[in-house]
Design brief:
Mean pLDDT: 89
Order of helices and strands: EHHHEEEHH
Low-confidence stretches: none
Number of strands: 4
Radius of gyration: 15 Å
CATH class: Alpha Beta
Strand content: 15-25%
Helix content: 40-55%
Distance between the termini: 26 Å
CATH topology: Rossmann fold
Structural class: alpha+beta
Largest sheet: 4 strands, mixed
């Protein structure tokens, strides 16, 4: 799933292009970490997601992941509160059970390339603690 941004900073100026690049960097870092741990990653484009879930509620995101054949769905969002403070949340959802089986939240400092990449690297290392077998409810 694409990484989403909610900018509540109220800053002047259009930063959409730079933020789009940073969101893509976060997605790539997380994808690479999951692939390195043996998970198959099926990327859903932002355009396809927006078409399927114009109001991206958790229920719509999980349903779409299921339609795409996903067993688990990773959702990541970033909230920019100011130039200095950003918040990142990641959830792994067991799609058939429709249950969050892994969640991490963090704040990071700085709306710049290095801060975003460092936050993504930190989160990628934490995703290493996700164990699909242990997280999955027994059938």
């Amino acid at each position: 799933m694409p990484v989403k941004l909610l900018d509540t900073s109220g800053e002047a100026g259009d930063q959409s292009a730079v933020h789009a690049a940073r969101l893509e960097t976060v997605r790539k870092i997380l994808d690479e970490a999951l692939v390195a741990r043996g998970y198959a990653v099926h990327d859903i484009s932002e355009e396809a997601l927006d078409a399927r879930c114009p109001n991206p509620t958790p229920a719509c995101l999980v349903a779409y992941a299921g339609e795409e054949g996903g067993r688990y769905a990773l959702t990541v969002s970033v909230q920019k509160m100011s130039t200095l403070i950003l918040y990142m949340a990641a959830n792994i959802v067991d799609v058939p059970a429709q249950k969050v089986v892994y969640a991490r939240q963090m704040t990071f400092r700085g709306d710049n390339d290095l801060a975003w990449a460092s936050a993504a690297d930190f989160l990628a290392r934490r995703l290493g603690g996700f164990d699909a077998e242990a997280a999955t409810p027994a059938p």
